[in-house]
Amino acid sequence: MKIKLQNVNTKVIKEQKIGWSWTQFFWGSFVPLCKADWLGLLIEATAMIVISACTYGFGSILIFIGFGGFYNRWYVKRQLQNGWIPYTTEDAEVLQQHNITA
Questions:
Q1: Residue 53 and residue 82: Cα distance in Å, rounded?
Q2: Distance between CA atoms of 49 and 9, rounded to whole angstroms?
Q3: What does the angle CA 46 – CA 48 – CA 49 come to, to the nearest 5 degrees?
Q4: Which of 3, 4, 10, 31 has its CA 20 to 30 A from that of 19?
């Protein structure tokens, strides 16, 4: 399911998926890098380094599964905190159904 968010200041509209992130699962740190999500990139890269070092690389799959499960929700929540709003009332309802608030 996708929603649209609008920046209050610039009026830019972007579409964002809600739910499981297959792109995050398969591409890992490239997703926050392409979105210029520097906090997400820092957290994921740090988690990848620490868990891979502790598990000799076998724990990396846990990072991909974990971030695939919550990245989209976390990203939208941070966008709402940074001045983005739901574009339509339907988008606001979808956010409310998924318990996503700023």
A1: 33
A2: 36
A3: 65
A4: 10
